[in-house]
Every structure is written in structure tokens, then in C-alpha cells.
């Protein structure tokens, strides 16, 4: 690595809190129980009959009893007993400190270590210091961790003990300060197997898979154990390095470590993450006794490979085996598989089984159930699961925000986003993308801009999903300059199909047909093959610009050059393009010769119908309407188009017959509506609508505007009665 000033030297020059301030800064609840009976005191009833089990005055009996209490997690009693030990030795301090660390009571562990430094005549050893550093890493106690680091440097433990230095590396990695952990590792004069494994683990957890494998390759002469191999295999899976994974698999076989259960699981998981499902399944099949991690990984592997049915079958096989009960992650993966297949009833059965097993309250199961219910349109059940959760993580919040946004409940989604921010969690790019999509669908430009700012603060504006969602949101809201600005900020090599298509669609939908075509040509020149959505956008642009020949060339190149099979929407665009160019007969020929794989739901013939109405060709329009009504007998729009076409030609008898047919079928035209956003609230309006809470004021204002318009027109003498 590039030489840098030693972290330890920089740290010692900082002003760090003293041990007294460290001790006093940590609140430690006072025990309310009575002092624990001394192990040297006689028992109440049997003292006269038998001696105390702790007849010796040494500390051994105290420590033995202390270890029993710590093992049973009765830490309050253990602390009370510890306080009565006349002269606690290193074993006493280490036992209680280990208990606090094992129970994740980090603050109590750090305070106990501080008390040791202030009151004990014993010298601190590397093991005791490592426990305190581990507590700082667990509890995210950065300030206290730096103080202990400074103490370790001043006492010489960092340089003299590889154990202490490794504990410091582990602490900084758990605190999310990977650069500090790497610098400490490089400064270590001596490294052992634990040191190497610790830094590789830190790199893998930080997502630096390739760097982790580079460090692993530098371990020549150090050797490896099962933990080192397992984390190296995890790095191969994360990076998708199949060849390296196979090499490490070979090392595991040669060393005899491939039989270790968690190494075998890591091997199978590596193959699955490298998209070699069959190899991972083969490794699983060779396991003599697959554990719950093995089964859960296999269920998740099938799910991630898009084989939800196989995932559910694997869960069933696990249940039939009966020797390994599923854990929360097994249930979560199986429920997610039900979501993918739309199996609501099966998902609810799994939820009931998770409840019976006491696992339904876990975050992973609850998150999966929220997604299942929301994707099935059961928002009430999803909200119930959300409200019942005792502890919500960012996945929970993001899942609920996505669910509300996808249901069109944008205001509720923003309310959840604000509540999430108050908890300190941040949404992921999926939640941001869903909210941006909702803002685009509702033309809520102001809220979309606020969300853009939130994404920047959260550091999510650089993700591919957020960028493409921002482009799409600004485009759908009609703010094409802002959409283009976000688009241009994306480096050209990082532009994907979604970003290109979002920008092309934005231009096509808002009158920028020429810009859409130019951008489409840029996309082709970049070497990126367009998909069906991009072709639909550029065909729509050709349609609005009246570029028949160019549209025909794009349409022909879809399947012939790029292997994209045209769908009904593409045929609809071509029919619309031909109709606008006056080639009605050719449009009819295209509409009447759809390939067998293209669904004929009347949409293409509806384009012909509208062209016939514009061209005043009632007979051809009637034939087109009949084609539409075959596919959609209750299509109100088709009846209205045909009626209006007859009325425009003065054929009132035919128009009346169409209206009579509509009444007999019970067909009613859906009421059109529009909406505006006022102070964050969306107000929806329809013709003659009087449902709004401010109806009287709205109509009073409308009447005043009409009166003002009448007066203005009358003054000019050009008023035409309304």
C-alpha cells in the first residue's frame, strides 16, 4: 500500500479522554438486588450439618461460582458476587468481562475494563484488552475505542502483542473504518493466521472482494484454516470469480477441510453466487448431514436463480427430512418464493408455521410477509405486520415504502420516509426508486426534487437504479432539462438500458421526437443493443414527427438485427404511424396480419378506428370497431368513437343505435379526471365533480372567472356564448 503516516502516531497526538472521564461517561445501572451471599458464609439451614462448599479462603471458589453465573447469563448476580470478592484476580476480571461481551452489553464491558485500570494492581494483559476492544466494536463505541487504542500504544501492547494488534484491526473494521483497519494491519510488525483472517473478513464485509482475494494470495508461508478458506470462498462468490473459487475448493479438498460443515456451505454458496447452480447442488448432495445453513442457502439459491418453484420444493424436502428445523432465513426465502409465484395461500401457511416456531417476529420473516401481502394487494395485512414488528430495520422501512408507492399512496410513502429518518435508518435505492416512480406517475415534481435532495444526502444518487429513476421522474413530470442534466452526469460507460430508455421516452412523450431519435442513435453508436421499451419510444417519436420511412426501418431492424420480437404495442405504433401518413389500407393490412404470438386485444384496431374517424371513413371505421369489440365487447371508448363518427357525418340513426347498444350492454364511459398538487395534497377533479371539501369556493371562483371572461369578450365584441 502507499506509505502513510502511522495511524498510531497520529492517534497519540490527539487529545483523548482520560480513563477517569471514560469511566464517568458511561452510565451503568445500579443493581437493586441484595448483595449476593458470600460463598464463604455458612448456609442458613444446613450449616450445622455440613461445611460450606467454599471452605478455602482462596479466590478459586469465588471464580468457579462466578463462571457458573456468567455461563447462565445471570450477569446481575455475577456482578454482585464479583463486587464481594476480596481480591479479584485476572481470572475474575476476565470472566465477568467475557460475560458482558458475550451478552452484547458493550457499555458495561468498557466500564468494567476502565474500573480495572483505575483500581486493580494487576497489569493489563492482551486478552483482557482484546475483550474491551471487541466490546467497542460491538457497541459502535468509536470514542472509547480510540481511547483504548491510545492506551494500548502507550503501554506497548500494540507493538509487543500480535493478539492486541489483531483486536484493534477487528475493532476498526466493525466500526466501519476499513482504511484505519488496513493501515493498522500494514503497520503490524508480526502477523499470525488470525490477523490475516481478520483483515480478509473485514474486506469481505466491506464489499471489497477482489482486494480480499489479493490479501489471501499474500498468505504464502502462513498457512490457512477452515475460517480462512470459508471467508476466501465468500469473497470468490461476491466477486463472481469462479476459477479462483474452484482453486480454493481444491485446496480445501487437499487439506481435508472440505468436510467441515461451514466450509462445505461456503463452497456450495460460492458456486451458486457464480451462477453455477448445478455445481452447488452437487456439493449439497454430497453433504452427509446438511445443516440449517445448507438448506437455507439452497432455498435462497433457487430463488435467486429465478426458480421459485424449486425453492418451495426444497423447503418441502427439508420439512419432510425432519431432522433440521428451518430457521428465520429459510422461512424468509420460502415466503419470498411464494411472492414470486403469486402463491398467497401458501405464503400464509408458511407464516403460520413461522408463528408456531416462534420465528414470525424476526425481521427477515416480517419483511418477507410485508412484501407478500403488499404484492397481493392486501395492504391492510401488510400494515398489520409492519405495526406489530418490535424492531424494524432499513429493509422493513424500504419494503413498506415501496408497497405504498406501488399502490399509488405517495403521501403515505413520504410519511413513512420521514418516520424512517427519525429512527436514524436510511432507505435503500429500491425504496428511493419506487418513490421517484410514484412522483413521476402523479406528476409531483416538487416532491420528486425533495426526494432527489434526500438521495444525495443519503449517498444513493450515484446508484444505477436511483439515476435511472431520477431521469424517468423528471421526464414524466415534463422537466426535460433537469432529466437531461441528471442523464449527462452519468459517465457514458455506466449508462445502462434503463437510463437510455428513460431519457428517450421522456423526449418522445413530451414533443421532443427529434431529440429522442438523436439519443437513440447515440445509444446504438455506444454499442448498447436497444430493448423493446427503447424501440417503442423511438417508434412513438417517429410517429409524432411523421417519419414513416425511418419508423419502418427501425421496426424491421427490431427482430432482424437485434433479435427483439415486436409486441402488440410496437404493431400499434406502426399502425398509428401509417394512419398518420395517410396509408390507411397498409395500416389495415398490418392490423389484420398480426403474428400468432402477438395478443390481439383490439388495441391495434383501435388505432385504425381513430384514423378512420379523423379521415371521415365511417364504413372502414365500423369494420375496425367490430374488430375491437370482438376482443373487448364492453369497451366504452370504442362505442363512443363509433357513435361520434356517425354523428360527425350526420348519420343520427346509426349513432342512436350505438347508444342503445351501450345501454343494453350496461356499458358506461369511465369518467375522466385530472389532479393538481396543493401544499403536498393531491386534489382529483372530474366533470361536474362536487366531492371536494372546498367545492363551494371552487365553483364560486370558477363562476367569477367565467363572468370575467364574458365581460372581456363582450368588450371586444367577439364573445361566443358558452
CATH class of the domain at 1-39 and 56-190: Mainly Alpha
Helix content: 55-70%
Sequence stretches where pLDDT stays below 50 over 5 or more residues: 1-20, 26-57
Q: What is the 3D shape?
A: elongated
Examine the coordinates and then state which fold CATH places here, giving the name of the CATH topology of the domain at 1-39 and 56-190. Serine Threonine Protein Phosphatase 5, Tetratricopeptide repeat
Give the number of DSSP strands. Answer: 2
SS summary, helix count: 40
The oligomeric state is single chain
Average pLDDT reading: 83
- Which class best fits the helix and strand makeup? mainly alpha
End-to-end Cα distance, whole Å, is 80 Å
Strand order of the largest sheet: 1-2
Taking the sheet with the most strands, its summary is: 2 strands, antiparallel
Please name the CATH architecture of the domain at 1-39 and 56-190. Alpha Horseshoe
Fraction in beta strands: under 5%
Radius of gyration: 35 Å
What features would you describe in this structure?
The protein has 40 helices and 2 strands. It is mainly alpha-helical and 722 residues long. Among the domains are: 1-39 and 56-190, Serine Threonine Protein Phosphatase 5, Tetratricopeptide repeat (Alpha Horseshoe); 206-288; 289-378, Alpha Horseshoe (Serine Threonine Protein Phosphatase 5, Tetratricopeptide repeat), CATH 1.25.40; 392-486, Serine Threonine Protein Phosphatase 5, Tetratricopeptide repeat (Alpha Horseshoe); 690-722. Helix 35 packs antiparallel against helix 36 (603-615) and helix 38 (636-648) runs antiparallel to helix 39 (652-665). The protein is elongated, with a radius of gyration of 35 Å. The model is unreliable at 1-20 and 26-57 (pLDDT under 50).
Amino acid at each position: 500500500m502507499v506509505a502513510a503516516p502511522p495511524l498510531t502516531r497520529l492517534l497519540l497526538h490527539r487529545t483523548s479522554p482520560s480513563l477517569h472521564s471514560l469511566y464517568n461517561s458511561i452510565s451503568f445501572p445500579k443493581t437493586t438486588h441484595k448483595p449476593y451471599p458470600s460463598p464463604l458464609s455458612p448456609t442458613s439451614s444446613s450449616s450445622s450439618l455440613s461445611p460450606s462448599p467454599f471452605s478455602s479462603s482462596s479466590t478459586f471458589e469465588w471464580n468457579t461460582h462466578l463462571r457458573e453465573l456468567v455461563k447462565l447469563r445471570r450477569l446481575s448476580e455475577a456482578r454482585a458476587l464479583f463486587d464481594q470478592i476480596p481480591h479479584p484476580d485476572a481470572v475474575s476480571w476476565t470472566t465477568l468481562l467475557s460475560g458482558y461481551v458475550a451478552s452484547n452489553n458493550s457499555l458495561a464491558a468498557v466500564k468494567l475494563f476502565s474500573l480495572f485500570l483505575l483500581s486493580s494492581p494487576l497489569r493489563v494483559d492482551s486478552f483482557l484488552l482484546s475483550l474491551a476492544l471487541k466490546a467497542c466494536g460491538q457497541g459502535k463505541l468509536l470514542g472509547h475505542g480510540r481511547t483504548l487504542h491510545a492506551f494500548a500504544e502507550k503501554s506497548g501492547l500494540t507493538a509487543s502483542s500480535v493478539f492486541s494488534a489483531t483486536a484493534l484491526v477487528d475493532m476498526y473494521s466493525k466500526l466501519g473504518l476499513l482504511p484505519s483497519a488496513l493501515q493498522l494491519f500494514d503497520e503490524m510488525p508480526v502477523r499470525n493466521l488470525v490477523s490475516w483472517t481478520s483483515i480478509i473478513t473485514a474486506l469481505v464485509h466491506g464489499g471489497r472482494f477482489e482486494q480480499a482475494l489479493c490479501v489471501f494470495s499474500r498468505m504464502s508461508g502462513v498457512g490457512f484454516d477452515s475460517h480462512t478458506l470459508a471467508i476466501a470462498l465468500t469473497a470468490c462468490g461476491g466477486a463472481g470469480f469462479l476459477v479462483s473459487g474452484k482453486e480454493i475448493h481444491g485446496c480445501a479438498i487437499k487439506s481435508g477441510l472440505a468436510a467441515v460443515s461451514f466450509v462445505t456451505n461456503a463452497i456450495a454458496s460460492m458456486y451458486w453466487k457464480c451462477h453455477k447452480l448445478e455445481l452447488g447442488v452437487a456439493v449439497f448432495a454430497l453433504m452427509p448431514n446438511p445443516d440449517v445453513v445448507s438448506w437455507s442457502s439452497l432455498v435462497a439459491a433457487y430463488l435467486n436463480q429465478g426458480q421459485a418453484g424449486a425453492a418451495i420444493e426444497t423447503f418441502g424436502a427439508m420439512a419432510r427430512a425432519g431432522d433440521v428445523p428451518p430457521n428465520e432465513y429459510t422461512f424468509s426465502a420460502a415466503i419470498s418464493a411464494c411472492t414470486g409465484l403469486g402463491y398467497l395461500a401458501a405464503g400464509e401457511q408458511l407464516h403460520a408455521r413461522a408463528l408456531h416456531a416462534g420465528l414470525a417476529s424476526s425481521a427477515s420473516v416480517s419483511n418477507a410477509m410485508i412484501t407478500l401481502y403488499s404484492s397481493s394487494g392486501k395492504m391492510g395485512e401488510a400494515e398489520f405486520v409492519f405495526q406489530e414488528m418490535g424492531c424494524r430495520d432499513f429493509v422493513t422501512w424500504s419494503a413498506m415504502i415501496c408497497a405504498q408507492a406501488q399502490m399509488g399512496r405517495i403521501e403515505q410513502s413520504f410519511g413513512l420516509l420521514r418516520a424512517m429518518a427519525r429512527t436514524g435508518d436510511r432507505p435503500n435505492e429500491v425504496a428511493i426508486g419506487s418513490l421517484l416512480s410514484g412522483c413521476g406517475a402523479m406528476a409531483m415534481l416538487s416532491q420528486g426534487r425533495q426526494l432527489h435532495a434526500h438521495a444525495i444526502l443519503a449517498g444513493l444518487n450515484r446508484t444505477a437504479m436511483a439515476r435511472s429513476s431520477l431521469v424517468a421522474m423528471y421526464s414524466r413530470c415534463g422537466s426535460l432539462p433537469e432529466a437531461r442534466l441528471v442523464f449527462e452526469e452519468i459517465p457514458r460507460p455506466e449508462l445502462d438500458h434503463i437510463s437510455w430508455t428513460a431519457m428517450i421516452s421522456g423526449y418522445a412523450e413530451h414533443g421532443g421526437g427529434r431529440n429522442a431519435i438523436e439519443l437513440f442513435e447515440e445509444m446504438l453508436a455506444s454499442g448498447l443493443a436497444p430493448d423493446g421499451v427503447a424501440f417503442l419510444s423511438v417508434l412513438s417519436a417517429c410517429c409524432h414527427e411523421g417519419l414513416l420511412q425511418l419508423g419502418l426501418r427501425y421496426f424491421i431492424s427490431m427482430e432482424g438485427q437485434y433479435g427483439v420480437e415486436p409486441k402488440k404495442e410496437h404493431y400499434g405504433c406502426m399502425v398509428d404511424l401509417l394512419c398518420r401518413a395517410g396509408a390507411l389500407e397498409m395500416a389495415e393490412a398490418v392490423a389484420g396480419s398480426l403474428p400468432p404470438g402477438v395478443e390481439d386485444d383490439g388495441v391495434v384496431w383501435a388505432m385504425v378506428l381513430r384514423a378512420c374517424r379523423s379521415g371521415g371513413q365511417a364504413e372502414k371505421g365500423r369494420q375496425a370497431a367490430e374488430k375491437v369489440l370482438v376482443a373487448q365487447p364492453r369497451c366504452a371508448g370504442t362505442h363512443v368513437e363509433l357513435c361520434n363518427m356517425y354523428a360527425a357525418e350526420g348519420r343520427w340513426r346509426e349513432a342512436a343505435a350505438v347508444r342503445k347498444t351501450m345501454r343494453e350492454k350496461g356499458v358506461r364511459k369511465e369518467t375522466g379526471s385530472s389532479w393538481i398538487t396543493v401544499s403536498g395534497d393531491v386534489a382529483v377533479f372530474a366533470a361536474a365533480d362536487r366531492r371536494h371539501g372546498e367545492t363551494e369556493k371552487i365553483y364560486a371562483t370558477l363562476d367569477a372567472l367565467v363572468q370575467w371572461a364574458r365581460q372581456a369578450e363582450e368588450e371586444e365584441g367577439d364573445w361566443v356564448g358558452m
